[in-house]
Amino acid sequence: MCGICGFYGEHAAISSDTLERMNAALVRRGPDEGGVFRDSGVGLAMRRLSIIDLAGGRQPIQNEDGTIWTVFNGEIYNYRELRTILSQRGHRFRTHTDTEVIVHLYEEHGDDLVHHLRGMFAFALWDARRNRGLLVRDRLGIKPLFYARAGEALLFGSEIKAVLAANLVGRELDYQALDAFFAFTYIPAPLTIYRDVRKLEPGHLLTYESGRIEERRYWDVDFSATDRRTDEREWLDRFDQAIEDAVRSHLVSDVPLGAFLSGGIDSSLVVGFMSQHLAEPMQTFTMGFGGALNPLRDERPLAKKVAERYGCRFHEHGVQPDFREIVGEIVEAFDEPFADDSVIPSYYVSQFTRRQVKVALSGLGGDELFAGYERYSGVWLGQYYSRLIPASLHRRVVQPLVQGLPEPRRGGDRVNHVKRFADAALQPPAERYLGFVSTLAGAERRRLFAPSTATQIDFAATDRIMTDLYEHCPAPDDLGKALYVDLKTYLPEDILALSDRLSMWHSLEVRVPLVDHPLVELSARLPSRYKLNWRRKKILLKQVAARHLPAEILGHRKQGFESPMAAWLRTDLAGYMQDVLSRDRLDKAGLFDCGYVFSKLDEHLAGRQKNNKLLFSLIMFQEWYDRRVA
Predict the structure, then answer these.
(1) What is the three-class DSSP state of 458?
(2) Which of 135, 235, 262, 515 has its CA 20 to 30 A from that of 6?
(3) Using CA atoms, how far apart are residues 337 and 13, in angstroms rounded to an integer?
(4) Residue 172: how many CB atoms within 10 A of its CB?
(5) Residues that are catalytic
(6) First-to-final CA distance of the chain
(7) Which long-range contacts (CB under 8 A, 24 or more apart) does 446-452 make?
(8) CA distances (Å), 214 to each of 126, 154, 246, in order?
(9) CA-wise closest residue to 365 among 522, 222, 577, 227
(10) Confidence of residue 295 (pLDDT cuts 50, 70, 90)
(11) Rounded CA gap, 296 and 308, in Å?
(12) Alpha helices for 438-516 (secondary structure H)
């Protein structure tokens, strides 16, 4: 696990100092050691967090004759099997690291090497015989990779800060990305907040040759191949085995492993399967929340039951609403605005865990594979609602009643979910789902921005990021389409980005076995009736869990790994919010309509409307802007 960076091509301003400066920006991703390879038309560099082959795995790594070089971020979980096959074909290995497998696979298969890899990865490879560079990002986007043009050269890095450290790329805002951030609370690939910097999309590779750049998709998840012939019992057995196999494969390590344990089904299953395959008791790490008006149930007692069941060493930590103390580090970790409020517990659990272990497994991905979010229930209900309720009745009676519902005094999302459903209920399926996943509709975003900002944004194009994916997915039903959209957008650029940036900020490797690509492909074949119905979510996954977990875990209402931000912004963080969103600070950016912002702030403080997602997005943008632009 490490951070990588470098360049392909010639540029008069690129020097050895440039490469060292880019690499130094990634030191928190890899504090153990660094390495550099420089030749005509290429520079590769890395910072290493030593996990496999601690003594011999230094990068960059080359093939036998030094014509193929690579730097690699991630883990290849099937590298031992691949190494055996390659050795039988005559390849000679100098190390025992998974990175060396990549150069020999490329010798055998060229760009098609990606189809042989199981794991999380972003890597750069230089083929000196062809003067050709290759960039690859893993299928699900677990590991990030950014790039930018600098004349005829191509710069790249595991984080934006490494690309910008070359001092060859402009830092002008991408207004379309700005709009996407306020639509979704994150910026979907390939956009970044900087106009000249792009994300390599999940499941894509990029080639560089003589100044020409070509990008193509090498993998996609197929929801059209739903298997309706397999019965429920067989599905149950297959997923029980597939999840265990995914977890077991992710235990490859030369250092001790731990696990995040929330008390929910996903992380509890991961811990249960880990304990079956580790010889020593493992360590688990659990968070709880403090602060006023906390509407969330403390899940630490549930997590402790799971840890005790499997003989784990249980560690717990309480999170207080002292966000201003860590916001600067969070901004630095992400390099661009990011406003999923799970950043707060994720920051602390990464910090807390790193004190004990270098590697932790997580249950991330279970909701996206098996339909665990409330919005998926909205998708299911939406298929029937417009058929049963006349449009006139909805507009005249249902919608006014729903919008008049008061927000719960102690927080919670149920009223907000009902309101969002009522707003989107009569839309076509793609637009309805857009309404479920958007913080603000296009018309509201137009009001948020100052006129000078709004004229530079195509609001419909932002919406099409989601609706085009939904409409072009060949899934047989709306739930499959919604899951596909989330696998292509929300999972890689919100959930997995959050996990990667904050864990690596603390030099901690986090592995996500539920996003193992064979398991993802199997889940796409599972009919929707085994995922969700009118009263249950994650149906089959809970049946698997019933074989392994305490009954209390199965009956616990899903909470999610989120902070009680709505309550905190009315209480503990109210003064901080009003300071960050003051007229002086907003005017400095000049991007927003202050009257609109203040009206949303007043609504939230008075409890008339729950606007925490918008307000937290404004806070995170302003904190980023004040540090990086102002």
Answers:
(1) coil
(2) 515
(3) 29
(4) 11
(5) 2
(6) 34
(7) 447/593, 447/596, 448/182, 448/592, 448/593, 448/596, 448/597, 448/614, 449/179, 449/591, 449/592, 449/593, 450/590, 450/591, 450/592, 450/593, 452/590
(8) 15, 12, 32
(9) 522
(10) very low
(11) 23
(12) 442-448, 451-454, 459-472, 478-488, 490, 496-505
Amino acid residing at 364:
L
DSSP state of 314: E
Helix (H) or strand (E) holding 424: helix 414-424
In this structure, are residues 233 and 483 in contact, taking their beta carbons and an 8 Å threshold?
no
> Residue 7 corresponds to which tokens in the numbers above?
């360049």
Among 207, 188, 213, which residue's Cα sits nearest to residue 199? 188
For residues 77 and 252, the answer to whether their CB atoms sit within 8 Å is yes
DSSP letter for 274, please: H
Q: In whole angstroms, what is the distance from residue 354 CA to residue 273 CA? A: 22
Residue 35 to residue 603: CA distance in whole angstroms: 53
pTM of the model: 0.94
| Whole-angstrom distance, CA of residue 22 vs CA of residue 4 | 9
Q: Which tokens sit at 304? A: 């402790």
Q: What are phi and psi of 327, to 5 degrees?
A: -60, -35
Per-residue confidence (pLDDT) for residue 558, from 0 to 100: 56
- What amino acid occupies position 259? A
- In angstroms, the CA 312 to CA 270 distance is 13
Alpha carbon dihedral 394, 397, 398, 400, in 10-degree steps, equals 110
User: Are 592 and 618 within 8 A, CB to CB?
Assistant: yes
Any long-range contacts for 380-385 (C-beta under 8 Å, 24+ apart)? 380/478, 380/479, 380/532, 380/533, 380/534, 381/421, 381/534, 382/421, 382/424, 382/425, 382/429, 382/432, 382/478, 383/429, 383/477, 383/478, 385/425
Reported as half-sphere exposure (CB side, CA atoms, 13 A), residue 539 has a value of: 16
Residues constituting the chain? 630
What are the angstrom distances between the C-alpha of 475 and each of 89, 324, 381, 517?
A: 41, 44, 18, 18
Look at residues 350, 353, 254 and name the one whose alpha carbon lies nearest to residue 50: 254
Instruction: Read off the pLDDT of residues 231-260 as tens digits, 9 standing for 90 and up.
Output: 999 999 999 999 999 999 999 887 889 999
Q: In what order do the strands lie in the sheet with 146-150?
A: 33-39, 42-48, 2-8, 153-157, 146-150, 198-199
Q: Which residues pair with 509 in a beta bridge?
A: 359
Nearest to 289 by CA among 360, 342, 338: 342
pLDDT in tens, 491-544: 999 999 999 999 999 999 999 999 999 999 999 999 999 999 988 999 999 999
| Amino acid in the structure at residue 19 | L
Please spell the DSSP secondary structure of 16-32, one letter per residue.
HHHHHHHHHTTTTT-BS
Q: What is the pLDDT of residue 104?
A: 97
**How far is 400 from 419, CA to CA, in rounded Å?**
10
CA distance 51 to 57: 9
Quick one: how far is CA 536 from the chain centroid? 25
Q: What are 47's strand-pairing partners? A: 3, 34
Q: What is the pLDDT of residues 607-628, one digit of tens each?
A: 888 899 999 999 999 999 999 8
Residue range 168-196: average pLDDT? 97
Is the pLDDT at 99 greater than 60? The verdict is: yes
Residue of 228, 126, 506, 130 lying closest to 343 (CA atoms):
506
